[in-house]
Amino acid sequence: AYTSAISQTETEIDENLIVVGVSQVGAESDWRIAQTNSIKESLTAENGFYMIFDNAQQKQENQIKAIRNFILQEVDYIVLDPIVMSGWDNVLQNAKEAEIPVILVDRDVEVDDDSLYVTSVVTDMVAEGRNAGYWLEDYLEKQGREDEDIQIVMLLGTEGASAQIGRTKGFTEIAGQHENWKILEQLDGDFTQAKGRESMETLLKKYDDIDVVISENDNMTFGAIDAIQDAGRSCGPGGDMIMISFDAVRAALEAMQAGEINADFECNPLQGPKLAETIKRLENGEEVEKVQYIEETYFDTTMDLETLIRGRAY
Ligand code: GZL
Ligand code: ZN
């Protein structure tokens, strides 16, 4: 029986369900909502699971509290989407001592002892950043602007998140190969629309010649587009600034169709099925790879967006 820490009600559950405590970052973006839905649709009773879900509202201390609660409740598995990479050693050590396997999903941790988690179902964030750099190289070439001075600003995701660190690392690596590309400034937008708008307003006030905006998720991009248009400027194909975004949620593909975004790099949020399959494999005593990559792709205005949007699951 499970005593819910919140309602203190005893929940009698079928003993042969696999009990999984899920510590989720928050509900900060469309991408996050899609990932949460995918996890909830996969870890269901009919699939053999009893899921306890915690939304940490983008606070690491809430995730640590949730993990301690899962340990007290003696769950069978802990699934963690870690908001930032550092600060997990102690609580994951507690889980290890309690012999509860920890599975990372989406984002990554930096721990001294990587036996503190069994496997990670993640995307290659550095590759996403590099791909954005390669796309920009290609686009500028097509525009005959490969030798022009290109001034770039970046809206960064949550400081210290593997998604922020990876995308920034990947893009700046490519940017560093072009002495005519200049990154004017990188501001934190915390993956949210409000912060993204605020940071873009600051950048627009500071710089009158911004050629490229690299925004590390679509919700910050939506905020940035508002700020750009409020300042009487434009972004996207034919606009003053090239807008490159990440996540490629439906609303962003619609903005792309409206001519406000040039390219969008996605890491697939539909990670629930892979998570459920991984837990079942572990339950059957199978060896599971330490890192399991979820596929990623990108979209730009050369594609048939009408069809892509219609077929979009999120
Ligand atoms: C990326 C994921 C990021 C998304 C944002 O895998 O961690 O977190 O890009 C979300 O939308 O906030
Ligand atoms: Zn310029």
Automatic annotation (TrEMBL):
Keywords: Signal. Pfam families: Peripla_BP_4 (PF13407). Residues 20-285 form the Periplasmic binding protein domain. PROSITE patterns: PROKAR_LIPOPROTEIN. It is found in: Cell envelope. InterPro entries: Peripla_BP_I, SBP_2_dom. Its main location: other. It comes from the Bacteria. SUPFAM superfamilies: Periplasmic binding protein-like I. Belongs to the bacterial solute-binding protein 2 family. This is ABC transporter substrate-binding protein.
